[in-house]
Amino acid sequence: MNIKDILNKRNEELLTYREEAVRRLKMLRYKGEPQYHISVDSKKKQFYLRTGDTIGKGKYIPQNKLYIAKQVASFEYLNKTIQLIDKEIKYIDSLEKNMGTFLPEDYYESLSVGRQNLVEPLKLTDKQFVETWLNEPYERSSIPFGTAEFYTDNGERVRSKSEIIIANALAKHKVPYKYECPIYMKELGVIHPDFSALNIKRRKLIYWEHLGKLDDPGYARDNAFRINVYQKNGVFPGDNLITTWETSTMPLDVKLLEQIIRHYLLE
After folding, report:
1. Domain segments of the chain: what residues?
2. What is the CATH topology of the domain spanning 137-266?
3. What is the per-residue DSSP string for 163-195?
């Protein structure tokens, strides 16, 4: 995520906060007139109401009228928050205007193809990054002779119908992936995750394990150990490891699969 994406996301957050602050202001009975302020004695847990020209703490607010303190304090808090939000939004707008049409590291892509061929970019373009990763040679795990054959729409052989669904979904969303690309894990040695996929936007490598026989006790035990080893090696479910599963009575949820791909690999 580049700085422009971060700024846009922050701007959206601020607008959401502002909308909520304005909504809450409209719900308050106290509208700022007359202009009161709240003084707080934190040690005694007491509250006082004063006007702008009041000297000292002001008038003590008894517990049975605490709603008055809440109204005035909320009014002050929400108005000040809106001021801070507007100030930050203005700063973000100014920053974006001064940044130009593209970031320095993206300047290479604005060059003509002929000029691009003459220079080496400081940062690989998304296309170059993906091509470099996909072109790294690897040896996938072999499938035993006589095993049932399953092929994806791209003609790639996988081990199950569910893996066909996953591979085709990744291809549909143009997510670069490798099938059973080997990695080294302490305690397990070299293993072959079902899929290794790239989140291009974040330039993040994510592994994907599909657990297809969880109602088999031995299979479930072995894969529970495997997931634990992943975590010991810094690969965590929900971060850089996707896990999907099924049993003989609960097949792979295709609709959920679409959500998983969008969440982990496209955003």
Report:
1. 3-100, 137-266
2. Trna Endonuclease; Chain: A, domain 1 (3.40.1350)
3. HHHHHHHHHHTT--EEES--EEETTTEEE--SE
Q: Token pair of 82, please?
A: 């809106």
Residue 188 structure tokens: 């397990």
Backbone angles phi, psi at 119, to 5 degrees: -130, 160
Contact 72, 38 (CB under 8 A): yes
Question: CA–CA separation, 100 vs 104, rounded Å?
Answer: 9
pLDDT of residue 189: 95
Give 53-91 as a DSSP string.
T--SS-EEE-GGGHHHHHHHHHHHHHHHHHHHHHHHHHH
Does the pLDDT value for residue 52 go beyond 80? no
Q: Are 50 and 59 in contact (CB under 8 A)?
A: yes
pTM of the model: 0.71
Q: Quick check: 48 and 39 in contact, CB under 8 A?
A: yes
**CB 262, CB 201: distance < 8 Å:** no
What is the chain's Cα-based Rg? Answer: 29
